[in-house]
Each structure stands twice: as C-alpha cells, then as structure tokens.
Design brief:
The chain is an alpha+beta fold. The chain has a single domain (about 5-210), classed as Glutaredoxin (3-Layer(aba) Sandwich), CATH 3.40.30. It contains nine helices and four strands, in the order E-H-E-H-H-H-H-H-H-H-E-E-H. It has a four-stranded mixed beta sheet, sandwiched between helices. A hairpin with a 4-residue loop joins strand 3 and strand 4 (about 190-195). Helix 4 packs antiparallel against helix 5. It is globular, with a radius of gyration of 18 Å. This is Disulfide bond formation protein DsbA. InterPro entries: DSBA-like_thioredoxin_dom, Thioredoxin-like_sf.
C-alpha cells in the first residue's frame, strides 16, 4: 500500500485565516481520505496579542480596526462565521494557552482528540466569543466535550505539554514559516501559506501523489 502524503499543517487558533481554512482541511480529509495524513502543528502569531494588535494596528484603529479587518476577511465565507464581539470587547491576551492545552490533550488522549478539541476551541472563540486564552474557560470546554481534564493538567504541570508546544514553535521558526495557516506538503516539497483556495490545495497535493518523493528532478 502506498504511504500517505504527509501534510504538516501549522496554524494559530486565533487566526481568522486558519478558521476559514478549517473547511478546506475537512474537505481534503474527506476527499483524499487515506491518501494524506494531516499533522496538526501550532505556531506563534498571537502569542502576545495584547501587545501585538494595538502596536501593529496603532495607525489603523487599534483593536477596533483589527476587529473590522477580521469581520471583513470572513465576510465572503459564510461557513466561517465570526462573532461581532471579537477584538472589540473579547480580546484574548495570547494563543499560547489554547495551544498548550491542545498539546496536553493530544499527548494524553491521542492526536484525534487534539484535532477534535481544536475545532471546538475555535468554534468557542469565533462563533461564541469565548475568551479562550483563559485556562478555566479551556478546561470547561474540555470537560464539556467529554475529555479528561485532570490528565491535561498533569501534562501542563510536568512540562510535557510545554515541551511539545515549544517543539512546534521552534520548528516553525527553523523553517522560517511566514504565518498562519501554512501547509508543508511531503517533507517540504511544497510549502503553501495564507488564504490558499481549496482547489489550489487539492491540485498541489494530487500532483505530489502522482510524483513519487524519490523521483529525480529535471531542474
């Protein structure tokens, strides 16, 4: 049996473009099934959101300007709704806590659990305007989803979750990834970044599927 193409998928849970990309990832998994293996990774875009946004958007209205930008970005994507409170009154200080908790969950309860919970956390933020940088909010969401909160806390307490998160952050930095979302296909044979359309993603992955990774290059 042919080995699946590996897609290293880097994102930040607070990134609206990663929220929009969620449906494309879901569709790729559905259409290509066992031909691909998506490995979910996190990178630091909003690790210091409380400083980054008002600083970078100082000349464009600060948090309010960024809030309008997020609303405008999602406007064309009805399957990626965005609550009007985001960044106006609901202003998470950092994406690091949700990333950390998701790593702890994946380590203790499996990668599939981590993937499922990541979508739940994104929905809680973008649709329900939950302040997902707060640990008590995250632990409540985990409990509501039926996962074991105590094992996640143990992974945070002993540092294993932090080590896994730092590995993601450091790998993203080592590869000079520009931001969220980023798709690294087949060990770097193709790197796609930003608001990449579904058909473009599918075409690039199918091209890799047709071309063995050990095939000699003509150039």
């Amino acid at each position: 049996m042919t080995q699946p193409i590996i897609i290293e998928y880097y994102s930040d849970v607070l990134c609206v473009w990663a929220w929009i990309a969620q449906r494309r990832i879901d569709e790729l998994n559905k259409v290509l099934a066992d031909k691909i293996e998506v490995r979910y990774r996190y990178l630091d875009v909003f690790g210091d959101a409380s400083h980054k946004i008002p600083t970078q958007w100082q000349e464009k209205g600060g948090f309010s300007g960024f809030a309008k930008h997020v609303q405008h970005s999602a406007q064309e994507y009805p399957d990626a709704p965005v609550n009007s409170l985001l960044w106006e009154t609901v202003r998470p200080k950092s994406s690091a806590n949700p990333h950390l908790v998701l790593k702890g969950l994946a380590l203790t309860q499996g990668e599939d659990a981590g993937i499922e919970m990541a979508l739940i956390i994104r929905k809680a933020f973008f649709i329900d305007a939950k302040e997902i940088s707060q640990l008590d909010v995250l632990f409540e969401l985990i409990a509501q989803a039926g996962f074991d909160v105590d094992s996640v806390k143990a992974a945070l307490n002993d540092g294993t979750a932090m080590a896994a998160l730092m590995a993601d952050y450091q790998q993203a930095k080592a590869q000079s990834l520009k931001g969220s979302p980023t798709y690294i296909i087949d060990n770097g044979r193709q790197v796609l970044y930003g608001n990449v359309g579904y058909r473009v993603l599918l075409a690039n992955i199918e091209e890799q599927l047709k071309s063995p990774s050990n095939e000699a290059s003509w150039c």
